[in-house]
Each structure stands twice: as structure tokens, then as C-alpha cells.
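Annual report, structural modelling task.

Input specification for the coenzyme A complex:
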Amino acid sequence: MHIRELGTDDVAEIRSVFLGIFTGEPWNDCWEDPAQCHQYIVELTENRNSLSYGLYEGNRLIGISLGRVKHWYAGTEYWIDEFGILPQHQGRGAGTELLSMIAQRLKSRGIVGMVLLTEREMPACRFYIQNGFETREEQVFLVKML
Ligand SMILES: CC(C)(COP(=O)(O)OP(=O)(O)OC[C@H]1O[C@@H](n2cnc3c(N)ncnc32)[C@H](O)[C@@H]1OP(=O)(O)O)[C@@H](O)C(=O)NCCC(=O)NCCS
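The model returned the following structure:
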């Protein structure tokens, strides 16, 4: 397996993998409007600070990490908006490998940390903690629906 940085030329392939990961269990995300999904992937890959990686088995994209770089005062961080491995490739170390290969690349760019949100009760939470992430109990996630 190998990784490479993803960009604007990869939007269609990323969208297909993204939907393959998140429209099934356990997330069951409902992307009814293809244009909305396309726009979401475009904005994650085409901004000046976008930073996304793909995990490949041969020439097949099997995992994604879609995010952006933030130049925070305490050092530059990689904020991950979407991370996942296609269902048929889960549970055999691919996610762990993708995170580890990304971390190596980030370190060589001088990035000091990775930040993400997930749901406490989802299996992914355990995956991140096993891979060295820590929860920040002092912080709270706030939303106001309009
Ligand atoms: C979470 C995810 C990225 C982990 O990648 P993976 O390649 O399946 O994980 P690995 O094989 O490297 O590591 C397995 C560990 O992750 C955890 N895990 C999380 N989800 C899992 C799943 N669906 N299948 C197996 N293990 C899972 C387990 O704790 C497991 O540890 P264990 O073997 O000690 O029980 C992947 O399962 C996935 O894409 N899930 C759906 C999308 C998702 O939840 N993304 C994160 C949203 S923030």
C-alpha cells in the first residue's frame, strides 16, 4: 500500500470512495443531493489550505484523509474533516497504516499535530485512541441550528 496527496483532479474518485465509506453502517449518512456532495468534496480539496491524502492498493483508492492545514499560534496543525477506509478493506490495519504514513509526511512538513472530531460511541473513537489521539475533556462542541 502507498499514499499520495489528493487534489482537484481526484474529486470524482474521492466522492465515490467517500460515499462508499459513509453511506453504510455505522454512519448511514444520507447524501441525497449529488451536487451537494460534489461541492463538499470540492471545498475539502480545492481551498488554499486543503491537504488530503489517499491510500492506494495498487492503483485503487481504498482510503481517504480529507482535511486542511491551520497555522495556529502553537504550531501548524492538520485538521481532518473526513477519514475512512472502504468497508471491504477495514479491520486489517489499513487505517492504522494510513494514519502513520500521514504522520510521517506531516512531521517532515513541520506540522505539529492532527485534530479531528468523531462520535464518542462510534468504533472509530477507539481506533483513534489506539492510534495515540487524546480527547480534550475541557472542550465542548456547540451547534446552533438555524
Ligand atoms: C475507523 C476506520 C478508519 C479504522 O480503519 P481500519 O483500517 O478499519 O482500522 P485498523 O484495521 O487499522 O484498526 C482496527 C482497530 O480500529 C477499531 N475499529 C474501528 N472501526 C472498525 C471496524 N469497522 N472494523 C474493525 N475495527 C475497527 C478497532 O478498535 C480495531 O482495533 P482492534 O483490532 O484492537 O479491535 C475504518 O474502520 C473506517 O473507515 N470506518 C468507517 C468510517 C469511519 O468511522 N471513519 C472515521 C470517522 S471520524
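The longest strand covers residues 60-72.
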